[in-house]
Amino acid sequence: MSDRWQDSLPEDMRTNPTLDKFKDPEGLAKSYIELERMQSRSLAIPGEHSTDDDWDKYYTKAQEGGHLTVHPDHASDEHKKAFWKSLGVPESTDGYSMVDDFEGLPDDTVSGVRELAVKAGWTNKQFQKTLAALREDHVAQSDVNSQALAEDKGIVDKMFGLAKEQKMSAIGALAEQFIDPKVPPAWAGDLSKLSAGDLIFMDNLVKGFTGKGPQAFKQPDTNGQQYTPGELDEMIDKLTTDMETNGRQMGKDRYNALLAKRIRYIGMRGASN
Questions:
Q1: Which residues make Cβ contacts (< 8 Å) with residue 162, sequence separation at least 6?
Q2: Can you give the three-state secondary structure of the chain, one letter per residue?
Q3: Are 127 and 139 in contact, with CB atoms under 8 Å apart?
Q4: Is 239 in contact with 261 (CB distance < 8 Å)?
Q5: What is the CA radius of gyration of the chain?
Q6: Mean pLDDT per segment of 10 residues, for the chain of length 273 residues?
Q7: Pick from 12, 39, 183, 193: most CB atoms within 10 A?
Q8: Phi first, then psi: what are they for 69, rounded to 5°?
């Protein structure tokens, strides 16, 4: 007589290799009971055509034991907090921290990302990764801006030449003449913020107002004399040429006197009221 307990089963079952894992019918019975118990505790996520009642039952069962295993859209506030806390989501902006020695982003940008993180429900790791990505973009953009500023400066130096100081002074005077102090532009008081194209445009405006166009700048009285913009330009150009051509030969006192006069004329040229 065979010692295999499976031999007492119908022929189509006794040869099933799955049964070889069990030494006796008792072991098979215990395994089946444990399987039933596990299935009774398992959760099947509702499908595409499930009803709201199906979803409510699903979330109610998911909350048994005080925890969730899926997104807590339908959970109570208490369970929501526990769920997100277990994933590492802070409850407020104070809970988001930067990695040690983090730098490279303005404080207002970091604060804005903190606010966004709270609204979006990010973990602290997601917050830190977002800051790192923004810093990388910020550094890259800063390099591009620095290169653009350097290129702009080269263009302005080339276009304005030796008259750069004079032209910048006149542009400043034009700005002071027409800027509304109640709503000043971002570059007010700092012409270095203007691009080369902006500076050249404003230089052309100065030429229009002080040359062929209507007189916009009234020069101050100097020793009882007033000079037109054109006369000042001629005197400045003459002094510049003289200093460049004969500067090495003339004495120090003579050179300094011409330099002082040139500076005074440039100030007069850019003055406005």
A1: 240, 244
A2: CCCCHHHHCCHHHHCCHHHHHCCCHHHHHHHHHHHHHHHHHCCCCCCCCCCHHHHHHHHHHHCCCCCCCCCCCCCCHHHHHHHHHHHCCCCCHHHCCCCCCCCCCCHHHHHHHHHHHHHHCCCHHHHHHHHHHHHHHHHHHHHHHHHHHHHHHHHHHHHHHHHHHHHHHHHHHHHHHHCCCCCCCCCCCCHHHCCHHHHHHHHHHHHHHHHHCCCCCCCCCECCECCCHHHHHHHHHHHHHHHHHHCCCCCHHHHHHHHHHHHHHHHHHHCCC
A3: no
A4: yes
A5: 41
A6: 76 84 85 77 72 76 60 63 72 80 78 87 85 80 70 82 85 84 85 84 79 46 62 82 81 79 77 46
A7: 193
A8: -115, -5
Q: How far apart are CA 68 and CA 75, in angstroms?
A: 8
| Total residues belonging to the chain | 273
**What residue type is assigned to position 77 of the chain?**
D
